[in-house]
Amino acid sequence: MSEIEEVRAAWGRIARWITANAPSTAQALRGPATDEDIAGLRDALGFEVPDVLEALLRTNNGSGAKDTTQTLPNGRVVPVNHVDSVIFPFGKVLLGCEEIVETRAQLLDVAQEAEGYWEPHLIPVIWDFERAYYSYALDASGSSGFRVLHYAEVSPNETDPTTSLGELLRSFADGMDRGNWDVQRPQVENGSLRWREE
């Protein structure tokens, strides 16, 4: 099975589980990314969107369909994440094209002051609901496939290579099917998926 097929198969399992078991959370899944969305992401990255990421985004362009914005008294508009955006354990959301661009730009800004903190070839994909740094990024620098790196806020300069995007998604799908992922269990409350500690 190719990496693209692996991503599509694993994501299909996740989306089917959410649709069947957590219909309120399913409403937070956006539709497919458009050609325009992908072109905007490619322009922001400055290189081609990895085919495995494009395959995922062409299915669902993130899990923030219920997210909104709020205007602060100073006129600044800030995003307000909806709790149904969380579809992965430990409060993780699937970023869409626009969120990838915004999150990556913020991380590159931080990297200007903290050398080595973030590299241009990294693409944030599965991110913390609160936009903290316990999250997963796709490493687009490799010539033999795209690896997923886990970033931790405690030591952002150190990344632990884990696996491919398809393998990571498959591990989440397996966790949904068997009822646990690491120390968290998928539970449904009023039609919404919530991951809770065992």
How would you sum up this structure, described in words?
- It is built from 6 helices and 10 strands.
- A hairpin with a 7-residue loop joins strand 6 and strand 7.
- It has 198 residues and is an alpha+beta fold.
- It has a 6-stranded antiparallel sheet, with helices on both faces. Strands 1-2 form a two-stranded antiparallel sheet. The protein has a two-stranded antiparallel sheet with strand order 9-10.
- About 3% of the residues have low confidence.
- Helix content is 36%, strand content 25%.
- The protein has one domain: SMI1/KNR4-like (3-Layer(aba) Sandwich).
* Overall number of structural domains: 1
Spans with pLDDT under 50 lasting ≥5 residues?
Answer: 154-159
Our Rg estimate from Cα atoms comes to 16 Å
Assigned CATH architecture: 3-Layer(aba) Sandwich
Ends distance: 33 Å
Helices, by number, come to: 6
Class by alpha and beta content? alpha+beta
